């Protein structure tokens, strides 16, 4: 994996991929590079106008791309269910790659359409529900992978199971860290359950290091804090790597051969550079934690995973 870059992406012809949050930043680069290597890519984005603009841009940069856009709002479980229901006509029963990339960061307190704290609800619960609803397609596809994008900032906080929605106390960066810890715990527990079912689907996590995307400025922009927004932009220019660099971890996790389940792939230095196995906080690999989060997530989303892949996907 030393000095891995996009030239190492194997031919993706005949493979299909869903990328959430693909209208900009790391998600867009991920979708573009998969399409460049021949994958059929679906851009799943909350904003129709931004999603269609991204699709036009991708087609201009990769004229041979097989790509399309469909609306998906991960902060609305009805939208997640509607999106999953429309995928029957996307590459039949198969799905080779699900890239759980979309997310929000350090927002002022908000709730989702279903009443969950926005960061936990979008970053974790939305993707938990989406993966469960698309699991039949993944189980029916040899070599399928699920890649969930977390963050090195997960190490700031373990989950508080007595207050998953930060109802008692809300600190935006702690809430973000907890949602990213939830991403890693989800991958750990999903990997464990897939292995127990005898499935060859590989679930892995990735992180971008410090990448210059609009994620970092979204919260302060919502509050109209112009000086803070400018400060973040200055730090981005001085320290952050480009979205192209930030997407390397996701692309490596999605396409590198012989990827170990439950890996966590990101820049070797932690902030930037070629992908490698990354540090993860010890609470993100505890089976008891994973089981507890899984049970809570099923209850909150009303999505229950079916790991029986002995039946055709259309029969589930």
UniProtKB/TrEMBL annotation:
It comes from the Bacteria. Keywords: Oxidoreductase. Pfam families: adh_short. The keyword Metal-binding does not apply. GO terms for molecular function: oxidoreductase activity. Gene3D superfamilies: NAD(P)-binding Rossmann-like Domain. The keyword Oxidoreductase applies. Belongs to the short-chain dehydrogenases/reductases (SDR) family. This is SDR family NAD(P)-dependent oxidoreductase. It comes from Streptomyces sioyaensis.
């Amino acid at each position: 994996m030393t000095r891995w870059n996009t030239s190492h992406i194997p031919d993706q012809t005949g493979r299909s991929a869903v990328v959430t949050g693909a209208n900009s930043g790391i998600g867009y680069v991920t979708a573009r590079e998969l399409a460049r290597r021949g994958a059929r890519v679906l851009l799943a984005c909350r904003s129709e106008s931004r999603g269609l603009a991204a699709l036009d841009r991708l087609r201009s940069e990769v004229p041979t791309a097989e790509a399309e856009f469909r609306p998906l709002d991960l902060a609305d479980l009805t939208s997640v269910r509607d999106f999953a229901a429309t995928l029957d006509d996307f590459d039949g029963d198969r799905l080779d790659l699900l890239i759980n990339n979309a997310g929000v960061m350090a927002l002022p307190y908000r709730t989702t359409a279903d009443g969950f704290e926005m960061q936990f609800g979008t970053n974790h619960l939305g993707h938990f529900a989406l993966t469960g609803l698309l699991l039949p397609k993944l189980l029916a596809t040899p070599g399928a992978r699920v890649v969930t994008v977390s963050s090195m900032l997960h190490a700031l906080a373990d989950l508080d199971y007595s207050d998953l929605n930060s109802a008692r106390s809300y600190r935006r960066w702690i809430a973000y860290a907890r949602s990213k810890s939830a991403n890693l715990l989800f991958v750990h527990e999903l990997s464990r359950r897939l292995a127990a079912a005898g499935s060859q689907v590989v679930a892995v996590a990735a992180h971008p290091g410090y990448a210059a995307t609009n994620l970092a400025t979204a919260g302060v922009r919502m509050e109209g804090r112009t000086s803070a927004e400018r400060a973040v932009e200055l730090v981005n220019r001085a320290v952050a790597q480009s979205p192209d660099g930030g997407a390397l971890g996701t692309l490596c996790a999605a396409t590198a051969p012989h990827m170990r389940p439950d890996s966590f792939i990101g820049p070797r230095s932690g902030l930037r550079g070629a992908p490698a196995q990354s540090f993860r906080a010890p609470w993100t690999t505890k089976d008891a934690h994973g089981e507890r989060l899984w049970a809570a997530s099923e209850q909150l989303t009303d999505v229950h995973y079916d790991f029986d892949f002995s039946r055709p996907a259309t029969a589930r």
